[in-house]
Amino acid sequence: MILSPEFYKHALDGKVFYHFTTDIGLRVIKGEDPAAIVDDLGSIPPKDKAALLKELKRLAKNGPGLHPANYFVQGPRILSRLTLPRKGRKKVVEGLLEPAPESWTNTRDLPVKGQSFYEFFIDTLTSGGANIVKKYAKEYTLLKVSIQPEDDIKIADIADLVKDATPALQGEAKNRREKVALGFHAVAGVVSGTKKYWKSLVPVSEYKGKETPTLPVVVCWTSIAPERLEVVQTFSTQQMQQLKNLHWKPRAKSPSL
């Protein structure tokens, strides 16, 4: 069985949120030395070893705990086209209000590059989930994070960002001119969607439930101490892929005319 019976039995009480990390990322969160973590992996190519150590040092620079690691707005091309408060340019911790929310797993209307949103989230926003880390990770861990009143934390709706960006990102270019045009429209779509994403932010106390936001994301600007983290379940990389496949509901192809 991939999921424990308790996996879906978590109430939307506004007191916790959920976050995925890799086994390597979890060791960093616990405060282990990045060099020791890399040494424990055994013999790996020198280039990979250097890249992995650099990434783990980046994650560990603020000490033990779950720290903001991903920028709320990704990419300088997007940032240069946006006028956001300084807070919108800072790093955040991202998570979900439920381990596997239905709105994220039922993606028939909005497929993203052949992925479910759930798979997209796990692959993109997992802490300790950079490609070089995932290359050597053997497990994924689902963490339950305790929310405190003093946390700088909000709920955002990522649906409009995905809707605005997806058409161009999924387009196919037949030549260089079309590729340039798609790139332009993709950036424009992400800029438009990011503005809506920022405006959708609401305090956790004002979150209304499963209907709004459509695709809720927890956005936290506060570092989380290790004692506020609880391991809910651990998955092997194979189980993790099964979990992602379990929640992939592809859109039916349109009949040929």
What layout of secondary structure does this protein have?
Blueprint: E1 16-22, H1 23-29, H2 34-40, H3 46-60, E2 70-71, H4 76-79, E3 91-95, H5 102-105, H6 117-125, H7 131-136, E4 139-146, E5 153-157, H8 159-170, H9 176-199, E6 202-203, E7 216-220, E8 229-236, H10 237-246
Helix pairs in contact: 8-9
Task: Report on the architecture of this protein.
- The protein is α+β, with helices and mostly antiparallel strands and 257 residues long.
- The chain has a domain of 165 residues.
- The chain has ten helices and eight strands.
- The longest helix is centred in the last third of the chain and has 24 residues.
- The protein is globular.
- The termini are far apart.
Please identify the structural class as seen in this structure.
alpha+beta
What does the average pLDDT come to?
A: 75
Sheet with most strands: strand arrangement: 2-3-7-5-6
Order of helices and strands: EHHHEHEHHHEEHHEEEH
Number of helices: 10
Low-confidence stretches: 178-182, 248-257
Helix content: 25-40%
Shape: globular
**Amino- and carboxy-terminal Cα gap:** 42 Å
What is the rounded Rg? 19 Å
Biggest sheet: strands, sense, closure? 5 strands, antiparallel
Hey, roughly how much beta strand do the residues contain? 15-25%
Number of strands: 8
